[in-house]
Model the fold of this input.
Amino acid sequence: MNALLDHPVLVLNRFWQPVQTCSVRRALHLLCVGHARVVQTEGDEKFQTHDLESWIEHSGRSDGPEFIHTVRLAMLVPSIMVLGLYEKIPRLEVKFTRRNVFLRDQFTCQYCARALPEVQLNLDHVIPRQKGGRTTWENIVTSCIRCNTRKANKLPAEADMHPLKKPVAPRWKPLFGLRENGLADAKWAHFIDPDSGSIRLSA
Done:
């Protein structure tokens, strides 16, 4: 059950624009205190929203695969929440981590262009630290171990090794890292890759 409570839920602002993801645990808290409603993602009333009481009622009529069970009831795990008052799209930054650099570079060595498993990849300072290079998005690229060893502490011109793409900080998106980890829900597609003709909003 703990794994289910940690599953990601897409959060929309009151204009139905994706602003972040949160855990099922956090989503249920928002639902219980009345700060958000669950967006129904199936059936004839798709995109209808539910407060806590109506979501419990809907769960009783659903045969969905993922339920949270308590002593008194079983509640369907929400996939999408819409906030009642929040209307902004926050400017969030992607946390600088080893794995997020790999995700930005699509697990591809920026010197030899080989896509490799994570265990065969390393991080390289384009401008070496010994020569004033900093550990930032703009100076770190994904490299395979062979290229990393070959470049060593040389400048790109000295090693004749230049990154395929200029390293920059990735733009934050609600799905950053989730798609690659297989955690993104296919039900989110209406909001992440919207087809305006297929979306019907409810009051």
Observations:
- Residues 98-159 form a domain with the DNA Binding (I), subunit A fold (CATH 1.10.30.50).
- The radius of gyration is 22 Å.
- The beta strands are 8-12, 18-23, 36-39, 49-50, 67-69, 74-76, 80-83, 121-125, 140-144.
- The mean pLDDT is 83.
